[in-house]
Design a protein that fits this description.
Blueprint lengths: L5 E2 L10 H7 L15 H21 L6 E4 L2 H19 L7 E5 L4 H13 L2 E5 L9 H7 L4 E5 L13 H10 L3 E5 L11 H4 L3 E5 L10 E5 L14 H4 L7 H16 L1 H22 L4 E2 L12 E5 L5 H10 L2 E2 L15 H5 L4 H5 L1 E5 L6 H21 L4
């Protein structure tokens, strides 16, 4: 960690854990073999991939063969939606085009995949959320049709930390024989991930969100779930995703996930204490600050604070913080640089002004009480300067 930076953007990415780096390093050097090769180097790599898959499966409570390694969450989300949709279409080519249900607060990886499928002939229903950014199971149930083939609802929102009622939604869908996908990218190390408890058929994770490497993720696909595989060119991943395996990345992902799960209670307690102190400190130092999303508690991710600063552009405040060595964000890292306000905050019914005045702070293992104190002081000073310059002080 760069200690001249106070890093409060763990929802965007996390530093790679030292134990993860150590586990990966041999596969960049002396153990560099291709897992598909018959040589002893290849078989060493194959064994490492197989062990890693088993480790991941143990955390998810599934079979190793149900874990498909991908290049990251965006690929996993796209594969989940396209795979389920086209499998349903191929199963009934003469019937009505299949229907998918998703929600207004999903990551763009899901929403853009759904829009592409819509352009290809599928129908899509986007279910709204409430003022706290949570989706009601009843609203999902009302959107279901006889031709619905998939419901995709995230486990926790990446911008507001709003935890979604995935279990209840999955139970409603199971009664109707409809597959359920959940983007659980923000949940690893903070929420339980047992797929049977969640009741889901497909689940997405990305290693760099839980102190693992970038460029590797996974898609859990429950055995028996109808899927049309979209990537050709090799027999890897049981013929479901061709391409030479990223051995080092897979090993790193497995070590990171196992460690995140083992330390989850400790991590949750740490994040709650630090996050609550940060929110209380900023609210006490900057008049009018409001929390976007559910109140701290069972409906909100332990490390998330999305705050609205009335009269201040979020991007302006972020630049001021960055100049002082504090990293935060205005929302999803995947939409940074776009002029539009957050689609998640808009879906919650917040005004354009409030959407644009919001900043997301997400804490992690490296965030200390001293970091909180320094951040509160910097935020208070920066907010006062911006308001003064705008004549609103």
């Amino acid at each position: 960690m760069i200690r001249d930076t106070i890093y409060l953007d763990h929802a965007a990415t996390t530093p790679v854990d030292a134990e993860v780096v150590a586990a990966m390093l041999p596969f960049f050097g002396e153990r560099f073999g291709n897992p598909s090769a018959v040589s002893h180097l290849g078989q060493e790599a194959r064994a490492a991939v197989d062990r890693s898959r088993a480790t991941i499966a143990a955390v998810l409570g599934c079979r190793p063969a149900e874990v498909i390694v991908t290049g990251g969450a965006t690929e996993s989300d796209g594969l989940a939606l396209a795979g389920a949709a086209w499998a349903a279409r191929f199963a009934r080519p003469d019937g009505p085009w299949p229907h998918l249900v998703t929600t207004a607060i999903e990551h763009s990886a899901v929403l853009e995949s759904a829009r592409l499928l819509e352009r290809q002939g599928f129908s899509v229903t986007v279910v709204p959320c409430d003022a706290d950014g949570r989706v009601a199971p009843g609203a999902v149930a009302a959107a279901l049709r006889p031709e619905t083939c998939l419901v995709s609802t995230m486990l926790v929102n990446n911008e507001t930390g709003a935890i979604q009622p995935v279990r209840e939604i999955a139970a409603l869908c199971r009664e109707r024989g409809i597959a359920v996908h959940t983007d659980a990218v923000q949940a690893a190390g903070l929420l339980p991930l047992k797929v049977d408890d969640l009741g889901v058929d497909l689940l997405t994770l990305s290693a760099h969100k839980f102190y693992g490497p970038k460029g590797v993720g996974l898609l859990f696909v429950r055995a028996g779930t109808a899927m049309a595989w979209t990537q050709r060119g090799g027999g890897q991943e049981g013929g479901r995703r061709g391409g030479t395996e990223n051995t080092a990345g897979i090993v790193g992902m497995a070590v990171a996930l196992a460690k995140a799960e083992a330390r989850r209670p400790e991590y949750v307690a740490h994040c709650v204490a630090i996050r609550d102190a940060l929110v209380a400190g900023i609210a006490g130092a900057v008049p009018g600050v409001e929390l976007n999303g559910p109140p701290p508690g069972p409906d909100r991710l332990p490390n998330n604070a999305n705050l609205a600063f009335p009269g201040i552009q979020g991007e302006t405040l972020l630049l001021a913080l960055d100049m002082e060595g504090i990293a935060a964000s205005a929302g999803s890292a995947c939409t940074a640089g776009k002029a539009e306000p957050s689609h998640v905050l808009e879906a919650m019914g917040l005004s354009d002004e409030r959407c644009r005045s919001s900043v997301r702070f997400t804490v992690g293992w490296d965030t200390t009480a001293e970091d909180v104190d320094e951040t509160v002081g910097v935020v208070a000073g920066a907010a006062a300067r911006v308001l003064s310059l705008s004549g609103r002080a």
